Amino acid sequence: MKKILLVEDNAANRKLIHDHLRRAGYEVNAFDNAEDAIACAVAGGLDLVVMDIQLPGTDGLAATRKLRAHPQTSELPILAVTAHAMRGDERRILDAGCDGYVSKPVAYKEFLFRVEQLLTAGRPGSTRA
Ligand code: MN
Q1: CA–CA separation, 105 vs 102, rounded Å?
Q2: Between these two residues, 104 and 49, which has the higher pLDDT value?
Q3: pTM value?
Q4: Ligand 1 centre from 38 Cα, in Å?
Q5: CA torsion sign, 23 to 103 to 34 to 100?
């Protein structure tokens, strides 16, 4: 079973995303903050990260840069979830090292398609199967 790390500080959104992923057949480790999530990711065994961008403390962009900088997680696919819809945010999100993003409110059919796509194909440009 594919294992997904979910980072989302909003409890209602976290439960909703968690439940959708579980129903789609994924194992989910959910955290409300980036620090604990990074520690979990570095410990290994994950296939994908779903990363909220707006988080208290370390935000999703900073967390993504940390994961990219760590050898254990540098190739881990990261799908961002963001309430930002402002011009320039897509660039900032991709520049930080995310492989794509979906906007809130999350459209779950598209969201699960993107998850499946990243799990199947891996990171764009990655040599990982
Ligand atoms: Mn948030």
Answers
A1: 9
A2: 49
A3: 0.93
A4: 16
A5: positive
Instruction: Using the Cα atoms of residue 61, residue 69, residue 9 and residue 102 in order, give the sign of their dihedral.
Output: positive
Q: What is the pLDDT of residues 53-100, one digit of tens each?
A: 999 999 999 999 999 999 999 999 999 999 866 678 889 999 999 999
Instruction: Report the separation in Å between the CA atom of 127 and the middle of ligand 1, taken as the mean of its atom positions.
Output: 31
Q: How close is the Cα of 1 to the center of ligand 1, in Å?
A: 27
Q: Find tokens 């799908």 and name the residue.
A: 79
**Adjacency order of strands within the sheet including 3-7:** 27-31, 3-7, 48-52, 78-82, 100-103
How many whole angstroms from 129 Cα to the centroid of ligand 1?
31
pLDDT for res 34? 98
